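Pinned message: reference record for LHH domain-containing protein
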Amino acid sequence: MGSASRGYNPSEPLSPSNYPNPDPDYSVPPVRYEPKSIDEVVRMRQGKGPTTKATHGDTNIEAHHRGQRSVENGGILDDLEEYIHRRDGNHTRHQLPSELTPAQRAREIRNYWKERGSEYILPGEGI
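Predicted structure (C-alpha cells):
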C-alpha cells in the first residue's frame, strides 16, 4: 500500500501495512514481516526490530501485542509498521487495558525478535 491509502483494506491480506482497528481476533494468524537483508536478521537475533526509524521512518517495523495481551497469557505479537502501530487512531485500537508492565513488554518483544531471527539461516551457517 502506498502512503496515499494507509487505512485498512479488508479485501487485502493482513500485513505490516494493512492491519485493522480494533485488533483482529486471536484466531487470526500472526502478521509477519519478512526480513529483506542479512543485517535485518542480525538485528533480530540481537533482540531488536529488523528495521530502524532512521532508515525506514514511519514504515519502521515494530512488534505489537495484539489486544495488549501478554505472550505468557496466550497473546500474539504482530509485526506492524510504526505508522499503523502508533498513529492513525492507535489509541482506539485496544478495548481493554494492557496486562503488561513496561518491563514485561520490553522483555517479551526482545525475546520475540531473538526467536524470529533464529528462524533464518544466514550464509556460512550450517543446517
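Pinned by admin. Summary line: The two ends are 35 Å apart (CA to CA).
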